User: Fold this.
Amino acid sequence: MTLPHAVVLASAGSGKTYELAGRYARALLDGATPDRILASTFTRKAAGEMLARVLKRLMEAGCDASGKAAQELGGTSHPGVTPEQARGALIGLARRIGDVRVQTLDSFFHTLVRAARTQLDLPSVWTLGDDEDHEDQQSEAMRRLHGPELMRVLKDLAGDASPLQPAADLSARAADLIHAVEQGASDKRVWGTRVAPDGWLLGAEQIAGIQSALKAISEHPERHGLGSKHHASLVSKTLTKLEAGAWDDLFSDTLSAELRSEQPSYYSKPLPPRLVELLVSLLRHVEARWLNDLASRSSAAGALAIRLHKELRAVRFEQGVLRFDDLPDAVVRAADEHGFEPLFYRLDSKIDHVLLDEFQDTSRLQFRCLLPLLEEITSQRDAGRSVFCVGDLKQSLYGWRGAEPGLLATLADRLRIGPAQTRRDNWRSAPAVLATVNRIFGSVASCELWADLREAARRWGTHFEPHLARRESLAGEVRLHMTAKTEDRSGEGPVLKLMGERVAALAQTHPQWTIGVLVRADSKQRIARTLRELRRLGLRPTEERGYPLVQEQVVNVFLSCVHWAFYPGDTASRFLVSQSALAPLVGVAASMREDVASQNAARLRRELQTMGFEHVLSGWVHSLESRLSEREAMHVRDMIALAREHDGSGSRSLADFERAVRSGVVKSPPSGGVTVMTIHAAKGLEFDAVVLADLDASWHQKTPKVLVERGERQACGTDDHVRMATLWPRQQVASADAELSGAVRRWRERAVEEELSCLYVATTRARRVLEMIVRPPAAKSRVVTSARLLCETLAPDAVPSEDGPTVVYEHVVASKEKDTSATAAAPGPKATAPAVRSQNASEARSRVGTQRDRTLRRRAIAERPVQVARAPSDRSGRSAGERLVRSAESSSPARVGDFWHAVLERVEWANDSIPDDALLRQLAAGHGVGHDEVRDVAGALASLSLGGLNGLLMEQNARGRWPEADTLDVRREWPLAWREDGAWVVGRLDRVVFAVRDGRVVGVEIVDYKTGACEPQQAAAYSEQYRPQMEAYRKAICQALELDPSRVRCLVALMRPGVVVELGISAPQRESPNGR
Assistant:
């Protein structure tokens, strides 16, 4: 049965992941193999969730004897799906899990480029770099072009500001130029094109004539019709400024606007026609000077930008370190010469089904790469191939990264697959939350705050349809708080205080809830201040993306001490160290002789250079351990981890180390349900309660340094042609030219649309409670903010109190039925399951490993319908679905076990691949476990690296156990499916080591990690309970690889006591399957 092509516009909470998973499952039911299905989304986390949802839905459909889940999975396009068919699809997917293409678009382009590398203009050997690599490459490109021209342009971009770090500011300005070229402004002819029209610029004689005419008017005001003393004053001031040559101060913004109007006036009285004529001539001359100056500077900036980008590209190719954006760029360049077909032909298999999530965040460059594939599939009717694209124009937040939401709006027409479908049923939020969302955004275009930006609000509003609540019984509360009048101009103090109080109240009343405190993407300092306020109240929030490491005082002291060692004359750093507990360790005092200070600094510098930064810093921590708080110790360990990376690079450069520390971030271990993150990071997530307290910032407080203007949008898609690039014009300059003013207006409109999307995403993350906090609006303010929009739509008559904060809007809906679960399942799309880890098909696989996998798959398959699949460890009566994909409400021991397994999954051999502390904290945050478990796992890893578990994970020991093997192939979290007693058994092995000789498997070692509490003397008895499970694994592998059972070792690794127990062969298995 053929899946129909579709473009779906899915509002927040409408279950698009559920729908994508169902679509993927139906493709499998149609007979598609995982390698022929491309499912892509914006983040790796979302890709993992999508795969987990596919597995969960197939398992539910296969295990539901009533067949209801199978029918729901089939939907209208596949009626009659049976549990047996769902089980078959699940097992087929499990057997080919390594071939799955559920990935980000970046990952897909990586796969494509690797496959077609001989046809692309890329280095023969390359890798993808991180942000630090790219900063280094940009610095090298700037160094190569260093000269007066570069510095002049960069300082011009920086403006009159005096930043504390001028080098960093100039580097940021260089990044602005490079970004403009990457946006498409790569032709110098588009830079600086807006020059003054002929005749605007006056000559010296013309200017002198105007001065004479103005003097005549000044001497005989009545004769020339001056209607007031204000008119006379205007003429006098103009003459004074002309004589002083103060051209830039000649006209105010107000007067300039009046002179451009049809009937210019001054102080409410019309100006005489002759005076208007003279002033307009002067205004045109001033504007011509501005325009020509802007054009000249823009042209110089453009020439430098193109050279800088060319040099940067050369640096990347020389180093073989690329960015993700270089990959689709290389594909497009090759396709322009050879076409796309030869490139897609290079993939391991043909793509029959394409599922694209978050399509509103697709860039023009990515779209150019995808379009030929989409057009090829949709042009073939009834060919068993399909395209399914889903997104939400209201959730487009990545315009700064090149996202073009207009591509989604016109995609259905471009592919000729009928009108786009819409989804507005909401399975996430309570009716009270959705009623408020509808009230805010349903009337957004009619608000008074827009002024000349109303068209942007109207355009965004055309994509909004009122959301329909499907969780009608869910209780919900929404409040808009306004702080009291205050003399604090920023109003931030009262807002932060009220935010902390509301979060604390929610956490105390509902300790099991998840609470998200969301801030704007450009508020790094706001995140830090929010965290401090919450911690002041005794809360221990988790920060999703972390905050600057150098904001911790102890880190600053350590870093200052290192800096002083290299620069003994830095008295500020020396004084800071002298006031700390570190002072006696390094020989620093507030008052000491300079020669002694220099000697001590030199000694410390030698230690850092000879022994390494990690060694020296670790010594300080060891000496101060009893005096450091748990939090301080954790952050210093983060610093030491960076020192380890720095030392490992071979560098002893202070500048490199300082840069690594200053760019480093820290994350608190999760110890509660409160998370602080940016709205961008929260996209795709949901919380029981959301608190928004960063709503008063101007939507236009940041403008780009370079403005790039594209051609008009076409009927389908967008025009890639850049028709103008210029340095950002100030308001007076933009007003002088219709093209410039139009480009500025369009940029501001796009900014408004993205800010509306940002507020929409923030408000729709809430399941039950939404709390918003604003400060009193400034009188007569015309600045557009989220706070003004909320006040106008929810509380237009609100009056701030002088006594304290006030609730100016409240919407509370009580539950219609008892609901005791914080995350009760909706009757439609199911709750998100944890991501299932899998090896991506693009990862390199050994010849032996590939051959072995195929052998296992071939021998494990049976064609006829079988009984319900079960796991080999299932002895409790729970369904296989519960075993394969754990529920989000799993118990604490289950989360701890998952955390241990996630860590051990990353260990191939303990002598070279032990996860560091930073990764442990990251994994702990993802699994919801605390500091104690992190400490236990860190201790176990340290033991493993020293040969713990009897050297089980040491490569040299393993080679001793299998001396006949020439290769050891390690697989972790390895999926396996086989038939046993007429039923399918689906398992996942923690660790499998294949001993290979001459291309054939001669032995196998199965390791099962157990993290439960067990005394060493009870290890053997404790491990026996897992014998049935291990024997099932041994039997399946023996049958598949035709091995004697004696060649398959089954080991239970008890992690807490650090003991390994080998489960020998039971009597029924001592004879090989082939009688040998």
